[in-house]
Amino acid sequence: MGDARNTSPPVDAVAVDAVADSDLGLGQVVELFCLAADVAWAELSITSRRSRARDVFTTGTPVDDAVTLALAIDDDTTASLSLAATDRPSSRVVDLLTAGLRRELERHRLRTESALFQRAANSSDARILIFSRSGNILFANDLADELISRQTEEELTVRWKNAQPQPLFQLLIAEVADFLSQKSRENGKDLLVLSDGSELSCELSALPAGDCTDVRSAMVVLREVVPSPARQVRDFAKLHKLSPREHEVLRFLVRGYDTAGLAEQLSISPHTVRDHLKHVYRKTSTRSRSELLRAISGASG
After folding, report:
1. Which residues contact 73 (CB under 8 A, 6 or more apart)?
2. Domain boundary among 194, 226, 258
3. How many domains are there within the chain?
4. Which of 33, 103, 249, 300 lies 20 to 30 Å (CA to CA) from residue 163?
């Protein structure tokens, strides 16, 4: 088997047009070409016009005499192929080699762009999903994955456009299918009210397939508008470093329980409830239940 070498300098990992990548199959394409064309040695040089990155892939044993061919890859990439002294390959063989290299570079670029999109989506504060026309989830960022996990534990219902509550993902799939079936599409945006009281803005946008106008998928972006009471309490408790028991006290407090009710729910004495509340007041710089409830509400505002 030949030896494939990558001799380019380090390239910024986020450069979409960079050629260098340990998983590139360009060396294998060159080796296959040598076997098919009965060439003992070949060296492929590829340069990105954007990043100026240059990569060299070699197979076989180098020779002094060589024939060099210019390969037309695309507008952003130049390439040349040097071969061991031999008859010049037919134009058909060169065309097939060029097509194989072009496909491999395109595969690499798509994989790189996909990785960059995933990284950006996971750093977003929104829940991002991509649905196919048939309703399959093609992509979900980390926050959307959490929403999917919640759905498996308990069915999340939602109100949309004042309609009757229905399962969240059933609604999203139906809306995506309807959106993609329209001949004239404008990004749609509306408000979802989940069964837990949280509100999400929902935006749909069409995703064309590659360079063609055929739209086969849609991106759904869900952003939190009003957090649920449970989320408000959780964030407030984390902000003020409350203990797990103090967090529990707050959970029932925001639901309207008095001291006796808190004691019953937590299976502790009313005296212990008052002690927990004193600690919470001290940690949150509040002096009463009403002030504490206003602080919880205001912290998420």
Report:
1. 46, 79, 98, 101, 102, 105
2. 226
3. 3
4. 300
Residue 13, amino acid: A
Residues 234, 200 within the same domain: no
Domain interval for residue 247: 229-299
Place of tokens 């998983």: 23
Q: 43 and 57 in contact (C-beta within 8 Å)?
A: yes
Antiparallel, parallel or unpaired: β 215-226 and 199-208: antiparallel
Q: Domain with 285 in it: what CATH number?
A: 1.10.10.10
What is the C-alpha separation between 90 and 38, in angstroms, rounded? 13
- Identify the burial level of 299 via C-beta atoms within 10 angstroms of its C-beta, where 0-12 means exposed, 13-18 middle and 19 or more buried: middle
Span 67-96, pLDDT tens digits: 888 888 888 888 888 888 667 777 887 888
3-state class of 224 per DSSP?
Answer: strand
Structure tokens at 235: 């964030």
Q: State pLDDT tens for residues 10-37.
A: 323 333 344 444 455 778 888 888 887 7
Q: What value, to the nearest 5°, has the Cα angle with vertex 283 and ends 282 and 288?
A: 50
> Among residues 180, 209, 226, which one ends one of the domains?
226
Q: Do 37 and 90 sit in the same domain of this protein?
A: yes
